[in-house]
Every structure is written in structure tokens, then in C-alpha cells.
Design a protein that fits this description.
- By secondary structure, this protein is an all-alpha fold.
- The chain starts with 8 loop residues before the first helix and ends in a 15-residue tail after the last helix.
Length: 269
């Protein structure tokens, strides 16, 4: 059988993981600019990409400074969601009684808009960082629990019985069978959680804050400064992408054996 021809430099560049999203982003920006010019959309409704880029260039130090409180609240809320969500999922998956009491309440809690209860956090905890962290935690908690419960429940019972038949203790069985099998689902929930934590932190900043990207957006909306508001949205998007990428890299290091981490997987029709 003939060996495959080596790819050229241009082909390798086009097949790089970061190139295609970048090209698609360029396409969106060009289409955005053409739509504004073609339909003559006024600047007070949608700013042009050039105006947004100008704000990013001139206000970058201020936007970067305001992004630190948002990043801190996001990371803290996300870590809390992982710290509490995974043990709660273990309890739900391991006990029908706990599941019958706790799981319906978790589902019910997701129907309550977080923007509606965020003012209560300001009343209870003031205008500091705590309300933002709690908002980020509440939005990121549920995806972790749901994904982890699914992961723990999908463990093959025969594998568990085999490990127990080999005189494995509960902890040894959990470490050797349950946890490795559930890790792919857990990381799927963590990747969803980290992006929702960004939203939660901004919700907390909308309600009561004098710093952060949410504060910048709220101030821009009040003054109809749409280029600055769109620039803040760009910063939030970059923050979400970076945090998602970090979790994805950690997943690649923790479970390199999983099929989702293999680069040579071929999907057959």
C-alpha cells in the first residue's frame, strides 16, 4: 500500500487547530462590516468593527484592568462549583435516597433566574467580590453535577463486581474503576461550567459593582457608548475561550487515554 504523501507547509497551516476558527472569525467581522455598509445601519444601533477595534486599541489598559475582578470572581466561582458539585454528584449517583431528595431540588433551582436573586446577594454580602463569586458558582454548579452524575451512573457494573471480587476496597474500586470512567463526563461538565461562570460573574457585576467588565458594560449602556460595550463583549469572549482552553488542556493531561483525546480517530460513515 502506498504511503500517504507528506503535507505541505500551507496544508499544515490550514489544518492547524487555531487557524480555521480564526478564519471564520475574520469572515464574521468582514460580513459584519459589509452588512453595516450595505444596509446603512446607524452607529447608535450597531457600531462598526473599526470603531470597536479603535476602542480596544485605545482603552486596552483600562479594559485589562477591569477584567481582573471579573476573572477572579469567575475562577473562584468555577472552582467552588467543581469542589462542591463533584461530591454532590457522587452522593446522588451512589444513593437512590439522596437522589430522590436532592436531585429534584437542583433541577427546580435552575428555573429561578439568577438575575432575579442576585440583588439579594448584594443585600446579604455587600458590594464586594462575594456576590459575584456566588453568582458564578450558582451558574456553574448545575452542569458539573448533571455531567458527573451521568458519568458515575454509566460505570459498567460488571467492572465494579470484578474489582470487588479481586478483594478491592471501596476506595480502591472507586479510584480504579468509578472515577476514571466518570472523568470524561466530569470534564464535559467542567467545560460548560467555566463558560457559565463568566456569565454568572457578569450578572453579579450588573447588580452591584464599581469594577469589572460587567460594570464597564452597564456604564456603556447608560451612556449609549456601544463601541465600548462591544469591546467589553470581546474581552468576555476571550476570557471564556481562554478558561475553556485551560480546562481542555487539563483534561488532555489527566485522561490522555480516552478516545476523545486521540488525534488519530477516524470517523467511518
Amino acid at each position: 500500500m502506498a504511503e500517504p504523501k507528506p503535507q505541505g507547509a500551507i496544508s499544515k497551516l490550514l489544518n492547524a487547530a487555531w487557524v480555521r476558527p480564526f478564519l471564520f472569525l475574520v469572515f464574521i467581522v468582514v460580513a459584519w462590516d459589509l452588512a453595516i455598509r450595505l444596509f446603512r445601519i446607524p452607529a447608535y444601533q450597531i457600531p462598526s468593527p473599526g470603531d470597536v477595534l479603535a476602542v480596544l486599541r485605545t482603552e486596552w489598559p483600562e479594559l485589562l484592568r477591569q477584567s481582573w475582578p471579573t476573572t477572579y470572581a469567575t475562577v473562584c466561582g468555577f472552582l467552588l462549583s467543581a469542589l462542591f458539585g463533584i461530591p454532590v454528584a457522587m452522593l446522588i449517583a451512589g444513593s437512590k435516597t439522596v437522589e430522590s431528595y436532592v436531585y429534584p431540588l437542583l433541577v427546580f433551582s435552575q428555573s429561578v433566574p439568577k438575575i432575579a436573586i442576585a440583588p439579594l446577594f448584594v443585600v446579604w454580602f455587600g458590594f464586594g467580590i462575594i456576590p459575584k463569586v456566588i453568582s458564578a458558582f450558582l451558574l456553574g454548579f448545575f452542569p458539573v453535577v448533571v455531567s458527573a452524575v451521568q458519568g458515575f451512573k454509566s460505570v459498567d457494573p460488571d467492572m465494579v463486581d470484578l474489582a470487588r471480587a479481586m478483594q478491592g476496597s471501596r476506595l480502591q474500586v472507586f479510584r480504579a474503576v468509578n472515577l476514571p470512567h466518570a472523568l470524561p463526563a466530569i470534564f464535559s461538565g467542567l467545560k460548560v461550567s467555566v463558560t457559565l461562570a463568566v456569565v454568572g460573574a457578569v450578572v453579579g457585576e450588573f447588580v452591584g459593582s464599581n469594577s469589572g467588565i460587567g460594570y464597564v458594560m452597564q456604564r456603556s449602556i447608560g451612556t449609549f457608548d456601544l463601541p465600548t460595550m462591544f469591546a467589553a463583549l470581546v474581552i468576555l469572549a476571550l476570557l471564556g475561550v481562554i478558561l475553556f482552553w485551560i480546562v481542555d488542556r487539563i483534561e488532555n493531561l489527566v485522561i490522555p487515554w480516552h478516545v476523545s483525546q486521540r488525534e488519530d480517530v477516524i470517523f467511518a460513515s
